[in-house]
Each structure stands twice: as C-alpha cells, then as structure tokens.
Design brief:
The structure is a single chain. With about 130 residues, the chain is mainly beta. It has a single domain, classed as Peptide methionine sulfoxide reductase (Metal Binding Protein, Guanine Nucleotide Exchange Factor, Chain A). About 10% of the residues lie in helices and about 30% in strands. The strands form two sheets. Strands 3-4-8-7-6-5 form a six-stranded antiparallel beta sheet. The chain is globular.
Length: about 130
C-alpha cells in the first residue's frame, strides 16, 4: 500500500528546487535532452524526487530518442497514477506519483518494445538509487 505524502505549497516550495517545483507541483516540463537521466545507463531504482517512493526500475528504461528518460513500465503497478490531460490542446495521459501526486511526465502507446507503452518522464522528477 502506498503511503500518502501531503504537504502544503509553502512546504513543497521550501523543500524543492525551483525547477523541481515547476515541473513536479505545477506540471511543467524540462527541455528535451537536458535532464541528467536522459542518457543515463546506470543500474538502479528511480524514485520520486519529491517523496522518495520507488517509481521505475532501470531494467525497464530504454533510449526512445525523445529527449526524456523513457520506461516501458513502472516498477510496481501502484507506483504511478494516470490522468487524462488535454492542457496543451491534445489528448495525452499524464503520469503522477501515487504517493505525493508529483507530476512525472506522460505515457504514450508507442514504445517499440515490451509493453508498447512509453513512460516519458522528466529527469527532475526522479532520483536514481544505484544498485550495488
């Protein structure tokens, strides 16, 4: 069961960098090919940069060429939530952390491998805990 993390806006602002706050709390997007995990090939578990919940396993990461880290699935079925998003004049599916509601990115049905799903995630929404 996911442990809920609820904080006030001032609490989030004081704990996150301005970029993390913009992306994770205000549903922003980092520029493509600028995130620290886009080309990362390190093994480990990607956790939410806001609350530390496990989100994605590096084993399911692949290079989609999109400019953002891409995964074929979350590490656990309940790790993320999906929501309809029509905010940019197009129909997309937003992905959020199920623990703290941080905006992570979007999921698209165009992955060429495995599940057919491409979880396109902002690096700033993630922290990598490397496996030893």
């Amino acid at each position: 069961m996911t442990k809920r993390v609820d904080k006030t806006e001032p609490e989030w602002r004081s704990e996150l960098t301005p970029e993390q706050y913009e992306v994770c709390r205000e549903k922003g997007t980092e520029a493509p090919f600028t995130g620290k995990y886009d080309g990362c090939k390190d093994d480990g578990i990607y956790v939410c940069s806001c609350c530390g919940q496990e989100l994605f396993d590096a084993r399911y990461k692949y290079d989609s060429g999109s400019g953002w880290p891409s995964f074929t699935r979350p590490s656990d079925e309940g790790a993320v939530q999906e929501h309809a998003d029509t905010s940019q004049g197009m129909a997309r599916t937003e992905v959020t952390c199920s623990s703290c509601d941080a905006h992570l990115g979007h999921v698209f049905p165009d992955a060429p491998i495995d599940t057919g799903q491409r979880f396109c995630i902002n690096s700033v929404s993630l922290d990598l805990k490397t496996r030893k």
